[in-house]
Predict the structure.
Amino acid sequence: MDAMVNLMGGLGVALEPTNLAVAFLGAVLGTAIGILPGLGPTATISLLLPVSVMLEPTAAVILLAGIYYGSLYGGSTASILLRVPGEAASVVSCFDGYPMARAGRAGVALGITAFASFIAGVLATFVIALVGPAFASTALAFGPVEKTTLVVFGLTLATNIGEGPRIRAWAMVALGLLLSSVGVDLVSGEERYTFSIPYLRDGFHVAVLAMGMFGVSEVLILAERQRDFTPALSARYRLRDLLPDAKDWKDSAMPMTRGTVLGFFLGLLPGGGALIASFASYVMEKRIARQPERFGKGAIEGLAGPESANNAAAQASFIPLLCLGIPANAVIGVIMGGLLMQGVVPGPRLIVDHPDLFWGVIASMLIGNAMLIVLNVPLIRVFVLLLRIPPAMMALSILIFCVIGAFSINNSLFDVGVVTICGFLAYSLRKSGFDLAPLLLAFLLGSLLEENLRQGLILGFGSPVLFVTSPISLTFLVIAALTLVLPLIRQMRW
Amino acid sequence: MNPARMSAIGLAAAGILAAAMAWRLGLWTVDRPGPGLFPFAAGSLLFATSLAAALQGGVAEAEDEPVDRGRLLRYAAAIAGFGLAMKTLGAVVATVGLILGVLRGIENRSWACALGVAIVLAMLSWGVFRHFLSVPLPAGILGIG
């Protein structure tokens, strides 16, 4: 009951004119970048970090969150119409969405995608309102020992579920932790890896790193080859073409329900998120289908389930951020960077210290989802026109916003150099099979990990034994160890 | 040697160097962890995992189409040039120059198209950062900013 009262209070915050306007802006931008292949939510949110600082913290997070879940609505459009996923989590929508479009059911595919995302988004919001405070109050009992192992657990999951070989993900975690230690050590006052450069005394700025890693490197990916992307988009969709009929609803109802539940749980896990949720839902639907051979040929269940799952996961991934201070994936990591830039430290105390922000952001998800269904059903034709933007123009726009955006953070040309070099390095890492998401997560969590590790060691008089005598801490360590060891055992059996 | 292995070796070298520098900072003081403990652990982990990745071999992405290296290098030069030109020419002139250079020199677009896009994007970026965010953009030697 308290949750509903708080959610109503949050609605009051979310309905303030500024917050309403930024929720709308986030929904529009999210849908647009979701439709555009190449520019994903991580890059877009990174680009907008300097702009978000101009807003109040609540409005800033509402904007950035809207872009995230908005991109999932829009991402499916290009998948369904062109078999070109607008962003990673929409890959699964190609499997059955594109065959539906080729069979003349593009309208229904676009419609069911929007409705599935909406239903999952609304349900997930209510569940977040119910379980979020419980998460936060549990985490309030955590001391430095538990916090240390929680971060270790989160990073272990991030390496386990991320893209590419796990050993490379661990290398990225290590690099992220190392980068987080650059600057003056706050305890001893010693300079670490600053090479007598005054700029480095404060360490790297998360927005500059994120813009380089996800923005500038994306420009280089787009620049790799000539892409004359002029898709044939002559189809016209009337509102009634987008509305699924009774049979479509019947076939989609259970996949949507299952997708929402599965997506919500996967979204809670560090390292999880929309991409994994959509794949997991697709696999599940195919396994339990009476006619699995229909999958890949236009089965509406193969679209409805994953679409619900990715949206539920995207929203659920705000729980670890807002309640534990642990970003579940790279997009949420960049949003965490936005919060830190505002001077707001996410974690269990957020709900107590900034209840307006916590409940306002959660309530804004209801409003954002309502806006998105309006934007994505009747206005889909308008957004589809964005696919006509040539990749070169998009690359230039990203680059200009990254470079000038990096300068704007400290009015420093040094940041321009950092964002550029970081972009080149990130590009070579991506091309060498290194996933950048664990790097960013480790960078964000590095200082939290170091601070709590040092406190834990002081509490144990230099001995790490406290980390295994605390039951919570031991549980985190055991799960982390199992996450590491179980796949190795499975490999050995094969 | 493939690029994936080379990157891994580069990271391993960075890891061992970082660990050595952290060691000098001190891992432990009288009664508490020193400033070098955490970076030493991170550097050592980077060294060990990167070395293992290098030994494991290359897992570079499978490409659908070959990368046009000449085009990529020209883009890389344009990006680096843009950053350098911001100080001397100022943000607005550098932006116009970047767009004209890329659209004419790399993408072979018409002058009209390149100029149109350059003006629109330069005005948009100036409007957002200078006007809306009040960022004192570098004016350069021409004093336009």
Notes: The first strand of chain A starts at residue 183 and ends at 184. Residues 2-226+235-493 of chain A form one domain.
